[in-house]
């Protein structure tokens, strides 16, 4: 039994990841942001939250209503 015949390179490299927020399985390179640029291109350098969920979370936390915060009328 030859191990090289049993496993391919794709089995050893993590190419897909499941988002912890929405639960969808997406491509690691296209679907997830890197946590830090200096960590290299290894699977552990990518976030566990997909790009779509990250964009929703960040845009929800930002203030979009301009009447909510106005300059104080002193």
Question: Layout of SSEs?
Answer:
Elements: H1 3-6, H2 9-12, E1 16-18, E2 25-27, H3 28-31, E3 32-34, E4 46-50, H4 51-61
Antiparallel strand pairs: 1-2, 3-4
| Mean pLDDT value | 77
**Helical residues, percent:** 25-40%
Q: Topology as H/E string?
A: HHEEHEEH
Tally of DSSP helical segments: 4
Alpha carbon gap, first and last residue: 82 Å
Structural class: alpha+beta
Describe the structure.
With 74 residues, the chain is an alpha+beta fold. It has a domain of 47 residues. Helix content is 31%, strand content 19%. Strands 1-2 form a two-stranded antiparallel ribbon.
Q: What is shown here, in short?
A:
The chain is built from four helices and four strands; from the N terminus they run ααββαββα. It is 31% helix and 19% strand. The strands form two sheets. Strands 1-2 form a two-stranded antiparallel sheet.
Question: What descriptors fit this protein?
Answer:
74 residues; alpha+beta; two-stranded antiparallel sheet; 4 helices; 4 strands; 19% strand; elongated
